Amino acid sequence: MPEPFKKIILFALIAFGVVLSANLFIYLWEILAILGLTIKMLPLLAYFIIYITLQAFFVWYLYCHFKKGNIPKAPPGLKVDVFVTAYNEPMWIVRRALHAAKHITYPHWTYLLDDSPDEKYKSLADDLNTKYLTREGNLHYKAGNINAALKRTSGEFVAIFDIDHAPEPEFLDRTLGFFDDKGIGFVQVMETFCNADDNVIAAASVQTAVEYFNITAVCKDKVGATSLHGTNAVIRRKALETIDGYHPGLAEDLETSLDLHAKGWKSAYVCEPIAPGLSPASFIAFCKQQLKWSKGVFEAACRTFFDGTFFQLTLHQMLAYSVRFSYYSVGLSFFLGMCITLLHLFKSDALVYEGFLARLIPLTALIVIIRWFMLKTWGTEPVARKGVHFKGISLILSTWPIYLFSLICTLVRIRIPFISTPKDASVKTRLWAILPQIGMILALIMGIIWKILHWEQNPAPLTLLFGFLLILQQWILAVPIGQLLKRRRVHGFEDKSLQPEFRVSSVAEKSDLEMDSS
Asked: For the chain, which ranges sit under pLDDT 50?
C-alpha cells in the first residue's frame, strides 16, 4: 500500500474518533442541561470523558507525525565509554551483557559498574579484558553508580546498558552518527526483548512495550521529544555536565532526559532492535518493575511541574511528556471504572450510565483499531505486526492496584525504595499481588448475578456487558492464581503470601528487594 494512502486511512480513522469523542462531550452537556448538578456521578463521568479523550487526542496527534528517519554513518575516531550497570544479578546475565558490550565493533572502552560489589564480577571483567569499577555505598543507586563512573572516565560519549540487555556489534555504528549535530545530547535506541517464549507473563510483558517503542517513540522523535529509558542509550558527556550528571530518582532516565531537553539539548531515536533485553517473566517481577516505574514517573511529573522544568520545554515536548506522565493513571481510571459499573449493576436506574456506555464503547473500540492499524502498518518488529496484543493489555489492566498504590504514595509523599526487577521466571506468586483484583472481580460477578436476577425490574444490557468486559480484561490473572493454588496444594497455606515483599518507608534504606525463596 502506498505511504500516502496509509496516511489517508490514518487521518480518516482519527477524524472519526474526533466525532465519537465530540459525541461524548455533547452527552455530558445534555446531562448537565437536563439533570443539572443533581446527578451525583456527573464528576466521575466528566473525569472519564476528559481522561479518555485527552489520552486519545495526544496520542493521535503524535501518530500524525510518524515518519522513520535515516541513520547517519558513524564518524571514526570518537572516544566512547560503554557502561554496563550491575547489582546482585545472576552471573550468567552479567556475562551475557558484558560479553556483548565488549564485542561492539566500534572502538570503545567497556566498563562493568558493580554496585554490589562482588569479587566474582571483578574476575569476570578481568577474564573478558574489560574495566571494572565499584564505589563505596549505593548512594542514589543506579544514577549514583553512573555518576561515580563518569568521574573516573573521560570518553566524549557514554553508552549505558542495563545488565539484562545485550547490544549487537553494530550498536555504536548505528547511533554515533547523530552526534555530528553538536546540539544532539543523547540518542535512545528502541528496547526489545528476547524472552517472549519463556511463558505467558513474559510474552505479555513484551507486548506492553511494543506499541511505545515501535510507534510512539518514533513519533516523539519527530517532535523533538525522545526520552531516555535507562538502557540502550548513548549520551554526550558535555550534555550531562550541563545538568550536573545523571539525575537520581526511581525514574532517573526520565528525569535526566527532561533536564537535558529543558537545557536545550536535542535528542534522536533509533527504531532498530539492536540491544535485546529480558522482560519480566513472572507476575511479581512485573509488579515490582511497574511499581518503580510508575512511582518514578509520578515523582518526575510533580518535580518538573513545581520547579518549572516542564515549562522550559517546547510545546511539542510538553505534549509528548504529558502522554508519558499520564500513562500510569490507567490504574486510577480502571479502578473507578469498575466501581461505577459495580454501582450501576446493583442500582435500580442505570439509564444515564447506559447512555454513557453507548458512546464510550464505540470510541474505545476505535482507539484499539487505530492502535492496531499503526502497529500493523508501521511496526518494526515482527511481534508488533501480530494483532492487538491482548496479553499485554490484560497484564497492564490487571496491575491496576500497583499503579493506584504508587499514585497514592506520590500524593501523600511516601517514598518507595529503589526496586531491582527480578530476572528469574521462577519467582513465586504472592497473594498480596492479586488480592485486590480478586476482590473486585468477585464483586463484579455478584453484581452481574444480581442484575440478571432482577432483569425485569431494571434491565441494563450495556452495563452488564461492560461488567463482563472488565472481568475478561483481567484474564491473565489466571496465571498467578493458578500458580498460587498449585503451591497451596503442594505446601499448604503460607501466611507469608499475604505480606508484601517490599516495605514503604520515609527513607529508602535498601537498593534491592529480595524475594523470599522459601
From this structure: 493-518
